[in-house]
Amino acid sequence: MHIILETVVQAALPDVWSGFDRKLFDQLSPPFPPVEVVRFDGCLRGDVVLLRLNFLVFRQDWESLITDQQTTTNEIYFIDEGVRLPFFLRYWRHRHRLVRHESGGTVVIDDITFRTPFRLLDYLMYPLLWAQFAYRKPIYKRVFKA
Question: If residue 77 lies in a helix (H) or strand (E), which one and from where to where?
Fold first, then answer.
């Protein structure tokens, strides 16, 4: 399954890139499930992010590896891929794209590909994951003002 969400923010591309840090990551965590950040190396190739999701009666670890990061004049992106995923996911690839906007701002693009153990579950998870990432849009706008 594939999810793409775009958010235009007022800040310039270099400012948005420098703001993709642990502080922003903490703000982007949705209210449910509560997320504990066990490890956050950053957004460069080889960095690791380890999260612990708390579903109240059980916990699941989610470990991702930053497998690529590129910078050009008009775009900066990094890709995190799931190494150890919660039971309801079998595959995870999230390309975080920051693209220079003609207004002088930046377009933040969450480009996500995922699979669950069952095709039907893919369709059931799609609106839940979409909502989890749509939750980020007002946060991006608030954090990245000109």
Answer: strand 75-84
